[in-house]
Design brief:
mainly alpha, 12 helices, about 60% helix, globular
């Protein structure tokens, strides 16, 4: 939880961040993905209205799966806002670039569907990028900046992973923000949603073993990428400690579930 965050500079982080995991009723979810909420996330207040309007359009293209849904897009935007405001050095990106990156977060799972990506697109992330063309000129600097960020969220296979830029690194780790930024209960809620959506054929113990392996590997990527982004060592240690806490919770949950079949 954010009460333990070591360098909190932003006034809106004096309370734990609300996430979609905490919003259970339909009115709450509707507000969470609303223009009214999204407009508060952008830095340029003169452009925030139009940026939020396009973000709402992008989120409307998300599926309604247990994990991947419009609220997930907002979760990623909020995790990214935390990275941009309180974690990376303030001068790493311009305010204009930060707003583009928030827009990319809104777009990153647009058009997602079970099965292979639509014909002509090598990955679902490439398909998500295509929706940026509704607002930005393809091949423009803005479009290519957001494209690099979205393609940075590709988890694998290894030959498709490309996170050479700061925007790609940041969006990737915002996409996985529940691992290092959420409290323990939220982490379990997200993990459960993910299992129901994509790993329902696994037992809870099998899923937890797979996730534990992923978390161990993720810690290395997180540490290296945050250091490459110029993040202070004490903040990196805090982020890694959050992942470690959730790994321990994973193991505890596995023991409890295995003792109650």
């Amino acid at each position: 939880d954010l009460h333990s965050f070591p360098t909190r500079r932003s006034s809106d982080l004096h309370s734990p961040v609300m996430t979609s995991s905490e919003v259970s009723h339909s009115n709450g979810l509707e507000q969470y993905v609303s223009h009214e909420h999204l407009v508060t996330l952008f830095y340029d207040k003169e452009r925030a209205d139009s940026l939020a309007a396009f973000s709402v359009d992008l989120l409307a293209k998300y599926p309604d799966y247990p994990y991947h849904q419009a609220a997930h897009g907002v979760d990623v935007m909020r995790s990214l806002r935390l990275l941009l405001t309180d974690i990376i050095p303030a001068d790493s990106l311009s305010l204009y670039q930060k707003d583009l990156l928030l827009e990319a977060a809104a777009a990153h799972d647009a058009g997602l569907a079970v099965g292979p990506p639509p014909y002509g697109y090598s990955t679902k992330e490439h398909y998500a990028v295509s929706f940026l063309g509704e607002q930005y000129e393809p091949n423009s600097a803005e479009y290519e900046f957001m494209e690099r960020a979205i393609l940075g969220t590709i988890i694998g296979p290894k030959e498709r992973v490309c996170r050479d830029s700061i925007e790609a690194k940041l969006l990737h780790h915002a996409d996985l923000g529940y691992i290092w930024g959420a409290n323990n209960q939220d982490f379990l809620n997200y993990a459960t949603r993910f299992r129901v959506e994509g790993c329902s054929n696994m037992s809870w113990q099998e899923f937890q073993e797979l996730e534990s392996l992923f978390l161990s590997n993720y810690q290395d990527y997180l540490e290296n990428d945050m250091r490459a982004c110029g993040v202070a060592e004490e903040v990196i240690k805090w982020m890694l400690s959050r992942v470690e806490d959730n790994k321990k919770l994973d193991r505890k949950s596995t023991r409890l579930n295995s003792s109650h079949p």
